Amino acid sequence: LVEEQLARVERMKNDTGAVDYSKLDQIIIGCCGGDGIGPAITAEAERVLRAVLKDDVASGKIIFKQIDGLTIENRIAANKAIPDDVLAELKACDIILKGPTTTPSKGDGPNIESANVAMRRELDLFANVRPVAVPEEGIDWTFFRENTEGEYALGSKGIALDADMSFDFKVTTTQGTERIARQAFEFARKNGKKRVAIITKANILKKTDGKFLELCYKVAKEYPEIEVDDWFVDIISANLINEKVRKNFEVFVLPNLYGDIITDEAAQIQGGVGTAGSANVGNKYAMFEAIHGSAPRMVETGREQYANPASMIKAAELLLRHIGYKDEADRVIAALKIANDTIKMTGRNDGATGAEFANCVIENL
Amino acid sequence: LVEEQLARVERMKNDTGAVDYSKLDQIIIGCCGGDGIGPAITAEAERVLRAVLKDDVASGKIIFKQIDGLTIENRIAANKAIPDDVLAELKACDIILKGPTTTPSKGDGPNIESANVAMRRELDLFANVRPVAVPEEGIDWTFFRENTEGEYALGSKGIALDADMSFDFKVTTTQGTERIARQAFEFARKNGKKRVAIITKANILKKTDGKFLELCYKVAKEYPEIEVDDWFVDIISANLINEKVRKNFEVFVLPNLYGDIITDEAAQIQGGVGTAGSANVGNKYAMFEAIHGSAPRMVETGREQYANPASMIKAAELLLRHIGYKDEADRVIAALKIANDTIKMTGRNDGATGAEFANCVIENL
Ligand SMILES: CC(C)[C@H](C(=O)O)[C@@H](O)C(=O)O
Ligand SMILES: CC(C)[C@H](C(=O)O)[C@@H](O)C(=O)O
């Protein structure tokens, strides 16, 4: 089965560059729960997708596929960030909804790379697109985080030279930078945005961020109608919370690690990392996820049914938009707003469960 | 003269490890204006220092020394981040007050390293201490930013492998990490702080940040009365603006670049990067500065007299505290608060000038 699907997917994708979902007669949505609260909140988001897509699910146009194997236990057993069979299953889907995964990071744990980072690399999901909006404050930002290189390029393979000195590497390539810059400017053009801000620390990391800055400006020349300027990442972390200037920003393009830091801050402005979804997009595959972690402590204390699925439902909304279901995406957003305003989630048994939250979204679709 | 002072300074500093300012019969404060608005705001901060220290200035215990040569023009001419004569002058002071300097960062400009970064390295100012307080919100944070290594270690010397690929390096050493960790924990102990938070991205940069995390925990064992925990830098950028959790943080210890980013964000919470001063401290030297840039556009448009000297006065306050003038430091802080509440600075001629602002501080000392 996996091989059959793989062949099918390869047939459709090989020569197109980017997938045109409207040309697919069938769309396979892979639901990959991950670790911790991941399976619980991913299941709730899947229920929302099934509800809003119910006619196309009934007709067989939309197919859901469960991918359960991306757990920390399996990854430790396989000694791989993504076990081979799981990677094959992921590649057999047209689009992926993924729950958070756990990465051992302490010196005493197994030394396994982040599954997120590995997936972004293996599926070449080079653009991490993170929208943040606070309409009442005039904030409508879209971040284009480069998603496969920079500080993340070597899959955590630095060098411990000796007991005294360790190195890690930041890598910036021409192709890697130009393609994320082009995504940002294309998005700006197609969505009537007036401005793109390039974020670097090119005064310090002159070779990598200097290259990133230069190439973004080069790509910008193809989009003369769009204003472009550049900022250092430190002052941007201040400007995002500076009410006098932050409304002026629209689209950001930034290297991997700065995107990681700055989008968490931005998500907090919107209400918390639990409110933000993230699109990981490449030319062949696309994966949608929450931007927060797997909250293992909630599971240890038996509270996973109280985990808030809002971020995964937000990810599902981005997924719908990506495969061309714009109205459905708008309906999910509207219903999500109602649920956020109505349902009180505390993460404990004095609040609602994730299922109750998702039910409220579904009732209001 | 320079040589005489150099000899004097070497005599006093060589065997002490850290300078004990109370043992000096004379303290030479170097005032180094820098670029852009730097000279203007540094001069105002010097006036405040002279006023609050007037008896010791009259008695000759405190001496001010002007160091004018750290300009972008001189640095380009010398093709050095700090021209040799300026470095010698800096080393002949006991303590330094420094205005912002300009770093050319665009590909088309001269390729000169940041003067800040070079000074931190040349004077081995390994601890960048940045306090941020918002008393009415219960915020009282002190950041211990490692100041000589990490992404800044190699003085912007990365590698452009070929036209396609560039590398920069992050370097973490045992000694470099242990000494900043020790500063943070010592500060916590001496100031009755209960908690230290270690900030890294050790799930990705396993060799460098992993080492940093491990060594901070090792140093923490010497301070069993202090609680310690660790956070990833992305979630910290969210937590700093999360009103539910941010009050719980007290002392932070973090690698160079994260300190750069996170302290700008923290300064904005306090009122803007223009409100924050920064102490750069080593075992032999200490340098105090604003955390913002040199605002060349203000100078180009002839507005430097309207630049707000609050950040440099804040730096002067930190300097006073460092050399043991605690009461004077408290008086500056109190007067600065009055000036902030009374004087309206707009950066334009519809606001007050920097001199008017400093006068208000001086009148209220
Ligand atoms: C889990 C972690 C590896 C990941 C990252 O650093 O990219 C996460 O923080 C994110 O932003 O998606
Ligand atoms: C000017 C620049 C090199 C410097 C830095 O990056 O450290 C500044 O942003 C700071 O925080 O002091």
From TrEMBL, chains A, B:
- Entry keyword set: Oxidoreductase
Q: What is its EC number?
A: 1.1.1.41
- Specify the domain of life of the species encoding this protein: Bacteria
GO molecular-function terms, A-Z: isocitrate dehydrogenase (NAD+) activity
GO biological process terms, alphabetically, are: isocitrate metabolic process; tricarboxylic acid cycle
InterPro entries, sorted: IsoPropMal-DH-like_dom
Q: Where is the Isopropylmalate dehydrogenase-like domain?
A: 28-361
Which Gene3D superfamilies does the protein's record reference? Answer: Isopropylmalate Dehydrogenase (3.40.718.10)
Which family would the database say this protein is a member of? Belongs to the isocitrate and isopropylmalate dehydrogenases family.
Return the protein name.
Answer: Isocitrate dehydrogenase (NAD(+))
